[in-house]
Amino acid sequence: MTTSSKISEWFYEYNKDIYHFLLYYVGSGDIEDMVQEVFIRAIKGLDNFKGNSSPKTWLLSIARNVGIDELRKRKRERIKNSIAKANYELKYEKTPDLFLYLDENKKHLYRVINSLKSTYREVIILRAIKELTVRETAQTLNWTENKVRITYHRALKTLEKKREEFYNGRERAF
What whole-number distance in Å separates Cα of residue 134 and Cα of residue 23? Predict the structure, then answer.
């Protein structure tokens, strides 16, 4: 199988998973461009794919790195804008475009997930939302399976606590 046909096959099989992962991971933006970047990186790095994990977990780990790069880029842009407009209070849209399409419970869950620290957020997205196995999640995050289990357990407890705080009227500022 040629490189292009293998990547094409993976694209048709996994592009929706990659799209949804990035949507949850970065919130909003040009997700389609990020999906393209994932597959461009996959083409460039296909020689490094040893087959120790499934193509899906390998692609999701690339997507995670693309998401991290995007979040870093956004952070740099915010800092640059803050310096340029030091006399103005910058207001950034705290709710991504996705909020327009989600009902109130999903909006809140999305806010709570985004308020979690990054390791918790990553493991919640992969395990609970994308329904990856412990092994696939460990391979994607380059963690041990035990770390995935422990972090997932702690993340769920934190997530539930934050949801309860919201419903009890003690919502924190996200």
Answer: 21
pTM for the whole structure: 0.56
Residue where the block lists tokens 């087959």: 51
Q: Rg of the chain over CA atoms, in angstroms? A: 18
Nearest Cα neighbor of 13 from 49, 33, 48, 42 is 42
**Residues composing the chain:** 174
- Number of folded domains that form the chain: 2
Domain range spanning residue 30? 1-92
> Domain of 153: which CATH number?
1.10.10.10
Q: Where are the beta strands (DSSP E) in the chain?
A: none
CB atoms within 10 A of CB 5: 9
- Name the domain boundary from 92, 119, 134: 92
- Please tell me which residue, 77 or 11, carries the higher pLDDT value: 11
User: What CATH number has the domain bearing residue 10?
Assistant: 1.10.1740.10
List the one residue out of 95, 76, 78, 153 whose CA is nearest residue 119: 153
- Do 9 and 76 lie in one domain? The reply is yes
Structure tokens at 93: 């849209």
Tens digits of residue pLDDT in 41-52: 988 888 888 878
